[in-house]
Amino acid sequence: MLDLYELEQLISFADLGTLSRVAEAFHISTPSVTRAMQSLEEGFGVPLFIRGKNRIELNENGQAAVELGRKLLQEAEDTVNRVRMLDARRNTIVVKSCAPAPLWELLKKLSGSCPGATVSSSICQNEEVLAAWENDDCDMAILPFPIPSGEGKTEKFMEEHLYICVPPEHALAGRDEVRFAEINGFNFLLRTELGFWDLLCRQKMPASKFLMQAEEFAFQELVRSSSLPCFITDYYDVDRWAADYGRVAISITDAEANVTFYIACKPGGWPRR
Question: What span, in angstroms and rounded, lies between the C-alpha atoms of 178 and 193?
Fold first, then answer.
């Protein structure tokens, strides 16, 4: 059986040229390297070196052993990495969500029920969440509709309703309710990573333009200083949130603005065994 540590030393000898340099690189003595080379020759069962009075170099067998050894060491490293990844996967809950609010709620629940677990989460469009679920690339999926097919348990998780927030001087500020058709054409501030909410607004408001902002603090400052409307949901205390930013909250009455989220979990739940 070949010793991979000794094989590493052989490869280093091919790269560095002398046993003393290999010893220095591995922080061992030159005699230890010499013994390792002898052990490798015994393991291969053929001579690997041409030995002179004051010189040692690889023969054709040794050169072949080095090239094949490089591949073997890479395969060994890949094997270790794959096993570690499998272990990490078994101890990781992978969550795909179509929107931020239900994901935040789920993460709070998971932190209480699975305190030792690692959670990997992302916000995606509906099609991406569904594809991850069908391809077994996630343990839990959150969508604005029940999972239509496949294994697993799906249940109603939470509801969310969309509002717009406008400055008090805005043309819509006196309204209690609006429809998407009425706000189509107004330009809006919009956060990134909103999942399907982003796509919904763009589909319902094709004549509008959206000023995107990824950073939370920057978005808050824009809300305070800009005259552009923005969106908010009843995941927050809508009226209080609007008042904190000197704005007025207006409900969107379209059916699409009222969403029921469903959560799906793979059979057997988590953790994976």
Answer: 24
Q: Compute how many other C-beta atoms are within 10 angstroms of the C-beta atom of residue 270.
A: 19
User: Which residues face 56 on adjacent strands?
Assistant: 51
In tens, the pLDDT along 29-76 reads 999 999 999 999 999 999 999 998 888 999 999 999 999 999 999 999
* Cβ partners under 8 Å of residue 265, min gap 6: 139, 140, 152, 153
Residue with tokens 């809508």: 238
- Give the number of other Cβ atoms within 10 Å of residue 227's Cβ: 10
Residue 248: beta bridge partners?
166
| CA separation, residue 101 to residues 38, 159, 260, 261 (Å) | 64, 10, 12, 10
Report the phi/psi class of residue 162: left, alpha or beta, with left for phi > 0 and alpha for psi in -120 to 50. beta
The CA–CA distances, whole Å, from 217 to 86, 101, 187, 197, 257 equal 38, 18, 20, 20, 26
Cite the DSSP H helix spans in the chain: 4-16, 19-26, 30-44, 60-90, 100-113, 126-134, 180-183, 196-204, 216-225, 238-244
pLDDT in tens, 128-142: 999 999 888 888 999
The residue among 238, 252, 226, 50 whose CA lies nearest residue 213 is: 226
Residue type, 176: D
Strands 188-191 vs 210-213: parallel, antiparallel or unpaired: parallel
Which residues, in sequence order, are bridge partners of residue 97? 123, 142
Distance between CA 159 and CA 79 in Å, rounded? 45
pLDDT tens column, 73-92: 999 999 998 888 777 667 78
